[in-house]
Structures are given as structure tokens and as C-alpha cells.
Amino acid sequence: MKAAALSALENEMMVMGESVFKFEEEFAQYCGTKYAISTASGTAALSVTFQALSIGHGSEVITTPFSFIATANSIIHAGADPVFADVEDGGMNLSPSRTRAKIRSKTKALMPVHLYGHPSRIDEFHDIAAESGLSLIEDACQAHGAEFKGKKVGSIGDAGCFSFYPAKNMTVGGDGGMITTNNEELADAARSIRDCGRDKNSKYYHGRIGFTSRLNTVNAAIGRIQLKRLEAWNQARRRLSERYRKELENVRGIILPPLEASIEKAVYHLFVIRTKVRDQVKNSLTENGIETGIHYPRPIHLQTPYRQKYGYAEGAFPVSESLSNEVLSLPMYPTLADEELVRVCEALKKILVA
Ligand SMILES: Cc1ncc(COP(=O)(O)O)c(C=O)c1O
Known about the structure:
There is one protein chain. The chain contains twelve helices and twelve strands. The chain is an alpha/beta fold. The chain is globular, with a radius of gyration of 20 Å. The protein starts with a helix and ends with a helix. The structure holds pyridoxal-5'-phosphate. Residues 41-43, 67-68, 70-71, 113, 139, 141-142, 163, 165, 175, 177 line the site of pyridoxal-5'-phosphate.
């Protein structure tokens, strides 16, 4: 990665260099889409996509309140309004039936999130979107390489959006994002919007109000190397998640992540358990030198700007709200050693029987 970054710095344009286009081509090929358009972040990928689809002022996009805040922010950045539907009972992804119940004349798109690398019920969303004439955007920011019915996520909806923030399953050595699509018109519009609204092949003629939201060349060069390793890393995450399940299957007081259906392939961006005594468990693990995370301690509708802008209060989305109180992300990264994983599980078992 260092060599690739240095070579890009020495030999290419810093912005829109050759590596950017190669990375886009390779990422599209990996996802099985015709086009991929890189951006400065996952948030930018989402927001540029909405703008490329002319989803803005007066439009609504239905999405989940149980995600990273950028999922909903991106809709507001585009000028539209997010409308939340709760997640499935017993799951963590957006519920198709609750989504259907929120559709009204202002609704222009549905945006499920493949949370923690676990594919959402994308074929049901596909049917609902088709029935109602809506766009379907996949927030695949946590799910690089995950599959549904043999297709990579990001290749099923009208567009898929990815983040390369360093904590993700692959990174570009900093912030970055990618839009995947089979729609040529959407691809052309997104390419223009992320690049100051420029017309194709022109420098100072602008057909759109765009942004400076490109992926830097050095980051693209790093991304190309990371992409080659993604499958192996995902494989390691899947193996580790199996080991976690085996070690923790009979432990009382915790709920393991939902099992994959045979048509799904999850990539375990995170391995998230649920427990009613989450905060005690987290503190005790910390005392044992084990770092854990909470994704996310507050659902989006209860974050201050959403309370202020839309008037949300506790109780609006009960499933998401209880998840926020119960979820705990255990250590998960491709180089986690089996002995370390076992140590985490042993500590967890001790805390739960204490
Ligand atoms: C589900 C989800 N959506 C959107 C984003 C936004 O991506 P970024 O941080 O690259 O802007 C992230 C990640 O941070 C995410 O996890």
C-alpha cells in the first residue's frame, strides 16, 4: 500500500488520476455492476446518489433509525426528508412491512441498510419499490462483499453506496466512498455531481450544481490493494464469527447475531451480541482489558437534531430503542487470533454467571 501510494503521488494527478478510474472499474467488477463512481466518503456517496436521482426538496426517503447517523443525514444533505420505519422484531435491519406502511405520495425512495455486514431483505424491498414506482438505494457502507441470493449487495437496488472509512471491511487509508449502479444515466449524473457539476470532458462548463466530493488519487491507489484482499479478510471474519457462535451458543443472558439464511452471506463488519445488562458487561470486559463497542447507543430519531427538526421522542421506534440499550460489539477483525477470541468468550461467560 505504501508503494502504491508513493507511486500514485510521484506519477499521477493528485485528483482524478489513473488510479481513481482503475479502482472504480475494479470495484464495479467486484460488485457485479456496470459502473462504480468514487466519492470522498460514504455519506457523499449516498447524498450524491439522491441528487443524481433528483430526490430533493419535497421528497421523502424511508430508512431505518437504527444505523450510523450519516444514513439519514445524507437524505437531508440532498434536500429531502428521512422518514423512519422500525427494524424487524428479533433482527436489526429495516422491516419491509413497516416500510411499506410508511409509503405516501411524497415517498421517492427506500433505503435499507445492510447493518453490521448482514444483508437486509433486499428482494422484498425490491418488490415494494417496483410496485410503488420508487427508487431503491442500498446503504452498503458496512457490507462490502456481502451477498444476497448469490449477488453482491450494492448490485441489487438502483444504486449501492459504500464507505471506506478506516474501520470498514476495507479502507482507502482515509475517508472515501463508492456508488455502484447499472444505470448509465445515474452514473453520469453522479460523476458530474461529485466533480463540481462539470459537464463530461469539460473543465469550466457546469450542467449541475455539484460538490467537490471526489476520491483522492492516493486513496484510490491504496483502495486497489485493499480490494484484492477483501475476500480473504471477509472469509476470516466469517470464520471468526462461527467460532464466536460455537463458544457462546449455550451462554444464558445473551442473544447472538441472527443466523444467515441460506440465501444470505454476511461479512461480519461487526459481531454484535445483545444483553439486558449491556453496560455492566461492557464495563467488566473493559476491566479485563477487552475493548468493545456500542453500535449505536442512541437511534437516529433520538439524536438532538432529529428531535429538534422532526419532533421525535422516546417510544417512536421501540425495537430500535431497545436494541440501542442492549447491543454490544465484540472484538472482530481479520487478524483476531483464536486464543484472543476464546479469552473474550471466557471473560464474557464469567461476567454473565457472576
Ligand atoms: C451504515 C452507514 N452509512 C453511512 C456511513 C457513512 O460513511 P462515511 O463515514 O464514509 O461518510 C457509514 C459509516 O461511517 C455507515 O456505517
